[in-house]
Amino acid sequence: MEKQEKTTAAYFLRRGMRELSNHRPDQAIASLRQAVDSIPPSCSDELSQALYWLSVALLRLDERPLAIKSLASAQKLRRRGYARRLYLRSVNEYGMPRQADSALDDFYAFTNLQIAYYLARKSKSRFDSFQEKDAVLRLILDAWKQLSASDRFSGLDACEKLDIFRKTKILYPSFGLSSPRSAPRGVIVKASFGLSNPDTSLKRAADRCLCGSGLPYGQCCGRVKHLREL
Ligand SMILES: [Zn+2]
């Protein structure tokens, strides 16, 4: 790292940590983001440290999805140490913020995946209106109710469940083609839950990730990103 960059990064890191110890996590976040931005990717130890403290500040503000995004990057850069330990304590088997129980973990994984699929098809990757968002969320919730009532999850691990979640196709009405006033009523939902068993050749969540991180696949390259991370 160039001397100038090093001084700038160290300055923002120190300032961020000072703000944290003075119980000003929002100011700490601003400084720590500047520290992260000023460290070149090649300086992995320094970057990991800044990302770790950024995640601590985000956790203080209860910004869990963003904290986990930051921690996931921190522990990737430095495989042993506090960042990995905090990351593993904070995530569930999907690599998302851990919820109070595993049914909620499943629910969040499903809804985040489905919303991400929906938004990926849109040009700006975001909802155009509250009505659209509301209708899409309702359809996703309906599909979740059907899917969870079918009791197909018992004994499955995260990757097997994700396989079912991904195969669940929801048909959405075409928003935007009609004015809000004539918004479609009686929207169609068609969830194909697949008749066959989940693909058993699929990588199991508990298997080590192929990238060599030493982490389970479901918590590494196969993790489900929270919408706040997108
Ligand atoms: Zn991986």
Report on the architecture of this protein.
This protein has 230 residues and is an all-alpha fold. The protein has two domains: 88 residues, Tetratricopeptide repeat domain (Serine Threonine Protein Phosphatase 5, Tetratricopeptide repeat); 128 residues, no CATH class. It is 53% helix and 0% strand. The protein contains eight helices and no strands. 32% of the residues are buried. The structure holds zinc ion (ZN). The site of zinc ion has 5 residues, from loops.
Could you give a quick summary of the protein structure above?
The chain is built from eight helices and no strands.
What percentage of residues falls in helices of 4 or more residues? 40-55%
Count the beta strands: 0
- Number of helices, where a helix is a run of at least 4 consecutive DSSP H or I residues: 8
Tally of discrete structural domains: 2
Largest sheet: none
Tell me the span between the first and last alpha carbons: 29 Å
Which structural class do you get from the secondary structure elements?
mainly alpha
Strand content: under 5%
Extract low-pLDDT stretches: 178-201
Ions and ligands: zinc ion
Task: State the order of secondary-structure elements, H for helix, E for strand.
Answer: HHHHHHHH
What is the 3D form? globular
